Amino acid sequence: MFDRRHMISALAGLLTTAAGEALARPRTKKKAAAKASGKKGKGGKSAKAAKGRKGHEREARHHAEAPQAPPPPPPPPVPDQSDPAVKAQLNAAFDTILNDLLAASPVTATYLGMDKDRFAGQKHLIDDRSPASLSANASRLRKAVGLLNAVDRSQLNAADRVDYDTVLWDQTHQLNGAQTFAFGENSTPFNTSFYAVSPYVVSQLTGLYCVLPDFMDTQHTVAVKDDADAYIDRLDGFARGLDQETDRIRSEAARGVVPPDFIITKTVAQLTTLRDTDPAQSRLINALVEKTAAANIAGDWQTAAAGKVNGPVKDALNRQIDALNRLLPQAAHDAGVRNMPGGDAYYAYAAGLGTSTDLAPRDIHALGLQKVAELSDELDTRMRALGLTQGTVGERIQAMYADPKYLYPNTDDGKAQLIADLNTKVDTVFSRLPDYFGVLPKTRVVIKRVPVAIEAGQAGGYYQPAALDGSRPGTYYINLRNTAECPSWTLPTLTYHESVPGHHLQGSIAQEAKGLPTLRKILGFNAYVEGWALYAEQLAGEMGMYDKDAPGRIGYLHDALFRAARLVVDTGMHYLGWSREQAIQYIIDTSGNSTGEATSEIERYCAWPGQALGYMVGKLTWLKIRDAMKAKQGAGFDIKQFHDVGLLAGACPLAVLEQVYRDRGLTA
């Protein structure tokens, strides 16, 4: 790090010396210079020139003679072992931060499988979503940062410094978001992993209605009667939380934070679908009925759940729908946050979190354009080899999307076959992992379709981590709202990204790693996590998964192009002021995505500014580290070691990741 204090000290020394010598100089020199020139001192050009030359000479001499500040001392060596007292202090800080998080977020406690023992009462609750919860959250984060700042980092060894630096970065940035941007879904406990931030508390991607139905179905376990009672209590909490969010919708709108009209429209449509779900088909009701039956828990649980869902929950959904509809007349059609109060600062914050770097939006935009050009050229070459020569790259991709030979029937049977085919690919990758990884995940991954109630606003696929205690596997969700949006040549890369060797492998290794603090295991770091998953798409090719699948390789290159285009459109909308329609058209023209997929993706970036930047920025960082390790090790480069070191370090900011390899002596 360049320490400005040494620069300031040197400048101060120069100025003091020059000023002292100037004051000590006799004033007669001016007249002497005039006599020597044969001119009067006043107004003579030669005198002025001579004076100027001599002044410059004196100034140069004084600068040369000025004492130079000593170079900064080298940093003290990193100890091999952490000081036991400081290590204990760090562990206590981590425990306090985690316990405070679990106390503030019952939903997080259940997601992590930690709603038991001292946190058993959390199973009856959901998170506080009221305006007052924002100030309480900021207080929690201030406490966390204070605890970490009290730890003497110099007394920690390299591994403990990684833990310290990672958690301090996370808590500091969360605190910045909580204090500076007290609206939306920025640093709330709902967002502990910083997967994405959003200026809107409720949107097509944010809000309790997006989370609770699937959460109650897949996360809330029922083994005894108290668990079933807790389920009913959480339905009451769902209604209460919806009303708290509705209060925030109104109060934040009064401060100028209003979602674009197209986000409101899509959100209202999803809320309406949830509200109008046939009770006989409602997972909120049927999940409890099935769970209590499986556990042989007596009681009329269908009537109990239906009374809550069709009563207070439905009423609260109506109130939230009404509040959003009332916002429509004042909602703009702007895609980006730049026109929101403090929008430029908010996007810089979101981009910093999305990439865990200080890259400027303009530089990210330029990087995106560069990668789009490179990948378009490679795609053109590969497509010509397949006989696809007519039209632009985007037009040829569109033709592949429409080709019937790549489409599954848009039926339940067709969707079931699609999932079965993906399971076969996952099994093949698992069989090849030992050649590339020394450490392997102990848990398998389950593939499910995105719940129908929320599929309209969700991404094409996403991954949900396993419970920390191993009671629930990791799940790869694929969006099957329309199989025309996911032709077969696009699915291998999506699957490698979300499952193995992507998110499931990375997340499982982190969760199963010995010695990694629990708090570290639950932090996501978008650029590390998504960058790894994007790197895993390329790695799958290096593992031979595309050797006999030329269309699948086109799918890989297409997805890489798509992630490069994300850099362009995200910064285009939020930094340069592009419209929603301009961004959609750029995606269609550049990467050939269907109008429906491009629209869903662009509207996702509108609700989650900066999140989409982490994919390509993160991948390029993983590849940069790998190249540096290859350069240092030469023929002795060990791909297993490269993977194991980065994955066992756990998710962290990209600068910390690079330091991990330097500390191990693997890169220069």
Q: What would your notes on this structure say?
A:
It is a single chain. This protein is mostly helical. The protein has three domains: 1-33 and 49-74, no CATH class; 201-333; 355-635, no CATH class. It has 26 helices and three strands. A three-stranded mixed beta sheet has the order 1-3-2, covered by helices on one side. Residues 1-54 have low confidence and may be disordered.
In short:
This protein is mainly α and 668 residues long. The protein has helices at 4-24, 29-37, 45-65, 84-104, 106-111, 132-149, 158-180, 208-218, 225-254, 261-275, 283-294, 301-327, 343-355, 361-385, 393-402, 412-432, 491-498, 503-512, 518-521, 526-542, 550-574, 580-591, 595-607, 614-633, 639-648, 654-663; strands at 445-449, 461-464, 474-478.
Tags for this model:
mainly alpha; three-stranded mixed β-sheet; 2% strand
Topology:
Blueprint: H1 4-24, H2 29-37, H3 45-65, H4 84-104, H5 106-111, H6 132-149, H7 158-180, H8 208-218, H9 225-254, H10 261-275, H11 283-294, H12 301-327, H13 343-355, H14 361-385, H15 393-402, H16 412-432, E1 445-449, E2 461-464, E3 474-478, H17 491-498, H18 503-512, H19 518-521, H20 526-542, H21 550-574, H22 580-591, H23 595-607, H24 614-633, H25 639-648, H26 654-663
Parallel strand pairs: 1-3
Antiparallel strand pairs: 2-3
Helix pairs in contact: 2-3, 4-6, 6-7, 7-26, 8-9, 8-11, 9-11, 9-12, 10-12, 11-12, 14-21, 15-22, 16-17, 17-20, 17-21, 20-24, 21-22, 22-23
